[in-house]
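Field reference: sequence -> structure
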Amino acid sequence: MDALVGPSPLAFLAASVLVILAPGPDMTLVARNTIARGRMSGLWTAAGALLGVSVHVLAAVAGLSAILTGSAVAFSAVKLAGAAYLLLLGARTLFASRATARSDATAAGEELFAESAPRLITATSSPLLQGALSAVLNPKLAVFFLTFLPQFVYRDDLAELSMLAHGAVFVLMASAWLTVWVLTLDRLGSILRRSSVRAWMERATGAVLVAMGLRLAFAHR
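Structure field:
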């Protein structure tokens, strides 16, 4: 059992809480979809993000993340794809805020965007897919789990199993937080979904997504 728990379990839990609560693209995207489309959209976005995180955990356990982080070409390719995706989502949100400011209809921004935006952007309108792509196309997550998980496992024959167990605990903790995040935002929905307030929220989340996309584009391994 010790091999499964690994050294410093409390340190692992404390570090995980700090990482999970830190604002990032996933939290921003979940907030965006919850405010714009409601609780179920936010929960599906969170589920997609958790699927993406799980992919990175499994990749780290299998050693695939080492290949990504060790190859400048592979890292740059995934990094630029992820940055482009965040920039597209940010642009979409900023564009939708213009219609939101002029209408009380919840879907007004989405409808206006769907009529005039490129198909490349509207093709990824599924909240589940948005969350998954946001996480999977973030190579910094690959680097994170590759360096984070090994710090809390014993180096023995069960190291991979221990990494997997720690990764599963991290995903469960992240799922609990994202669920609370969605429910909190949804509870405030009567305020946040007022056209004037929602327009400012969309501008803020859109700007954050664009900023994160630019930050990722210029990130180093």
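Note: The longest helix spans residues 72-100.
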